[in-house]
Amino acid sequence: MIKVTPDKLQPGMRLAKPVMNRAGMALLGEGTELTETWIARIQDMEMEGAIYVEGKLEMEVPMDEMLAALETRFQSAQGNPKMEMIKRAAEKHIRTLYE
Amino acid sequence: MSEVIESKVLRHRIENIGSLPTVPDTLRKLSRIMEKPNVSLTEVASFVQSDPALTFRILKMVNSAVYGFPGRIASVSHAIMLLGLNVVKGLLLGVSVFELMQKAMSGLYEHSMGCAAAARIIAQKKGLREPEEAYVAGLIHDIGKVVMALEFTKAYEGALALAETEHIAIMQAEKKFFADNHAALGGVLSEKWRFPKKLTEAILYHHQPRSAVLFPLETAIVHLADILTKARGLGFSGDQIVPIVDDAAFDRLELSEEDIIDVFRELEGSIEATQEVLQQ
Asked: What pLDDT, in 10s, does the model give residues A35-59?
């Protein structure tokens, strides 16, 4: 899921979360494929916040760097089974961010 | 090395947070309201409404995707009705210490927001009735650091540098400079602001959860949330290393590796929503 501001919307993007108006009413449901018309309407709404569309976030830090930093943070926790489990979970999670 | 700052001096400073010149006006006023016994919903609501910037921020926060009801809360009193006075007090504190946290320690706010979100996710997983209370405890668990870094800047910088060069936890490094650590001072503040015992205990013992006698579960949640936030590398709390999790606290929560991955995954969505709130 990626968060974009209304001006960055492109036709063909699919909503990952419903678009709500200020009163909390869903205007466009999750999964809607955006057309130029929908985008123009969304842009006219002067919504606060952003729109969530499907897709992967572009990560600012390369994965190798992220994993190296993880190693460093856990250096004093070696040999502790609980900490190793937390580290494994963190590593698996970080990898999914780059898939 | 300079002398250790005495407990008496530290606590005196904390007691007088309502009149410290380094503390922004909004937080000083808020502090004075929160320490009143039996402060009413109306009093809090009218205080917030007298400050448009604060009103804007708090409504933005409760209406953000961080909460379950985006775009539906139009007034501060409505927010208090839905979330409860203690949660709104905590959120107000959270939004008013934002700049102060940025000033005190770069990255501390991101760490606190991350810990808050992680605490709520774990609380929901454990079926706690008020996961928002866990959120608030996470949000302000390091509030003691803010006061230390602002009021005793040199000493706190010393502690941060020591933690970095010696590869020790900031909690350990603080000992060389201060008679009380940030958790103890946070506990004092929480009491002063009349937060429920549940919150005070979670803040006070977030580094030593086995000392929590009344609310061991809530305390264990904040303890683990803090560690997971550090494990994920969100923000900066003064720790270069991830502190070792307490065995008993970890066992109490009965989380599997899959559960922890789940917490990380949900945390990711929450971070985005948080950034949205912070962008003014």
From this structure: 988 888 888 876 666 788 887 666 6
The CA distances from residue B23 to B65, B78, B191, B217, in Å, are 30, 28, 19, 33
Please give the Cα distance from A90 to B10 (Å, whole number).
Answer: 37
Q: What is the ipTM of this complex?
A: 0.86
pTM for the model stands at 0.82
The span from the CA of B150 to the CA of B108, in Å, is: 13
pLDDT of residue B76: 86
d(Cα A23, Cα A84) in Å, to the nearest integer?
46
Partner-chain contact A70 B228, CB within 8 Å: no
Would you list the domain boundaries of chain A? 2-53, 63-97
Q: Which of residues 28-47 of A touch B (CB under 8 A)?
A: none
Domain A2-53, CATH class in plain words: alpha beta
| Contact A76/B at CB under 8 A | yes
Asked if A51 and A3 count as a contact pair (C-beta separation under 8 A), the reply is: yes
